[in-house]
Design brief:
alpha+beta; NADH Oxidase; two-stranded antiparallel ribbon; 7 helices; 40% helix
């Protein structure tokens, strides 16, 4: 039809202008403008039982298998532990010889497995459900890796309380990152957007990093 093709450019222009002027009520320029997002990141849950971190943190650990598994060499066992942690979602994982690197943190265990996950928000300053996402991810990883260690017949726990400074010391000892001049833990790929999960204290024979 003669007038059909001539009207298409005008129709496209009208649609383009409409898309440019259309303002959806739920679209904002960024998360910082959204009060719901701010609460999701920064407001602690009204009931702690709604936080997955509380649930995992209070979950009981299983028993140590009574028969010790036949293991490979220490370096192969270390590789298996790291592969499992990586499969579960950790971005960084390393092993510390506590007797050599940090005997003050040993708590009677010779080794520590240290995992770190990417954190868009610092969970130490963002107590909301969303702000704790990195903590949830880290707890999931370390809980399962510690269970795997116990199934091999060795001790493995992530229930030992450690401060942020102690975790950072272990992460540096494991070769995961360094401390900045202003005292913040940083890694090459993610900078300071990283969370160190609960370290796993164990007597599983491994080859340490760092």
């Amino acid at each position: 039809m003669p007038g059909r093709s001539s009207g298409l450019p005008r129709l496209r222009e009208d649609l383009s202008r409409l898309r440019g002027s259309l303002k959806l009520p739920w679209r904002r320029s960024g998360p910082s403008d959204d009060p719901y997002w701010d609460a999701f990141i920064n407001r602690p849950p009204a009931d702690g039982r709604n936080a997955i971190t509380q649930t995992i943190g209070k979950a009981a650990e299983g028993n140590i298998f009574p028969t010790i598994s036949e293991l490979h060499s220490d370096n192969v066992t270390s590789s298996h532990a790291k592969e499992l942690a990586t499969y579960l979602g950790t971005q960084l994982v390393g092993i510390v010889d506590l007797g050599k690197q940090d005997p003050a943190l040993a708590r009677g265990y010779p080794y520590a497995i240290v995992c770190a996950v990417k954190a868009e928000y610092d969970p130490y300053t963002s107590p909301g459900i969303g702000g704790q996402a990195a903590v949830q991810a880290g707890q999931f990883i370390t809980f399962i890796v510690a269970a795997w260690v116990r199934e091999t017949g060795f001790r493995g726990t992530m229930k030992i309380e450690t401060s942020r400074a102690e975790r950072e010391r272990l992460a540096v000892a494991a070769g995961l990152g360094t401390m900045t001049a202003d005292g913040r833990f940083t890694v090459p790929k993610y900078g300071t957007k990283i969370h160190i999960a609960d370290p796993i204290f164990t007597d599983l024979p491994m080859l340490a990093d760092g």
